[in-house]
Specification:
This protein has about 325 residues and is of the alpha/beta class. Helix content is about 35%, strand content about 20%.
């Protein structure tokens, strides 16, 4: 049975070099924030499972087969009439990325609390979801809240990445309300700074953002700071510790935050301290940005642990 279960949407990814208007060739992959996190953790050795809906379009066998090959249990990925979301990534000059989404009304956005199997959730050790999963639709938001409640009732921890995408929300106020409704159930918070916490919490100060989550009862907080690494603290060790990013050559940062999440959650499930788990998260994300796309360049267990071992003595905590 999976130790780490996530709820959300995975879309078909088509990426190209240069502007979309000029592209003649696209490469197919797949990606979605919570699924990216699962695959990152699975490559490190965690047993994972996905709660979602999959549209019965021609992409469905590709998506399900790809997830299974990555070691993700798909028994709770319900196949339904409809289509799967699609997004394009174009790589522009200077490494900048341009995203174009076709996801409104996708099968995954129609997930409801009735799709949840309480026994399946109860057998996990950690449940992960995100603000994007909440924002997909009212029913998806309800499913996120219901899953968090079922998990906590069964003694399962809840990991949450706010992953604010304002274009998916009617307003910033709605995004803030959605965070507030799940926060009492969250045990591991994975926000980003400074822009995201600035919008959601009203502060861009990293220490204040970490304290906000600790004060609300969260057990472990890892504030992602992009190329600067992260700031991590816990209820038992509330003084934030900075975990910097090693020198890397970045080609594509798509899904880097999700890779960090997967590495950190795998570390916590493996018994690492929050600081050591964050160090593994930073190692995983640092290796991921060397290649293209959200999934293909995620590192193997051997690669991530080799980098972690190199840097672990410097951040022994």
């Amino acid at each position: 049975m999976p130790d780490l279960i996530a709820l959300g949407e995975c879309m078909v990814e088509l990426f190209c070099d240069g502007p979309l208007a000029e592209a003649t060739t696209f490469h197919k992959s797949f990606g979605g924030d919570t699924l990216n996190t699962l695959v990152a953790a699975a490559r490190l050795g965690t047993a994972t499972g996905y709660l979602t809906r999959v549209g019965d379009d021609p992409f469905a066998p590709y998506l399900l087969g790809s997830w299974e090959r990555e070691g993700v249990d798909t028994s709770q990925a319900r196949r339904v009439p409809g289509f799967n979301g699609l997004y394009f990534i174009s790589l522009l000059a200077g490494g900048e990325r341009e995203f174009t989404y076709y996801r409104a009304g996708s099968a995954a956005s129609t997930v409801t609390p009735e799709d949840l199997d309480s026994a399946y959730l109860a057998r996990a050790r950690l449940f992960h979801t995100s603000g994007i999963s909440q924002a997909l639709s009212p029913t998806s938001r309800s499913a996120v809240l219901a899953a968090c409640r079922l998990a906590r009732a069964a003694g399962v921890g809840v990991s949450f990445d706010p992953n604010l995408r304002l274009r998916l929300w009617p307003s910033l106020a709605e995004a803030r309300a959605a965070l507030e409704e799940v926060l009492p159930l969250v045990t591991v918070a994975l926000p980003s700074g400074p822009e995201e916490v600035g919008q959601l919490l009203g502060t861009t100060d990293p220490g204040a953002a970490v304290r906000f989550f600790l004060d609300r009862g969260v057990e472990v907080v890892a504030l992602k700071l992009g190329a600067q690494g992260c700031l991590v603290a816990s209820r038992t060790a509330p003084e934030p510790v900075a975990v910097p990013t090693p020198p890397v050559t970045s080609l594509d940062t798509t899904g880097a935050g999700d890779a960090f999440n997967g590495g950190l959650l795998h570390g916590l499930l493996s018994g690492l301290t929050p600081v050591q788990a964050a160090l593994l998260g930073v190692a995983t994300a640092s290796l991921k940005v060397r290649g293209r796309g959200a999934i293909a360049s995620l590192p193997s267990r051997q690669e991530a642990y080799a980098l972690w071992e190199q840097r672990r003595p410097v951040h022994d905590g």
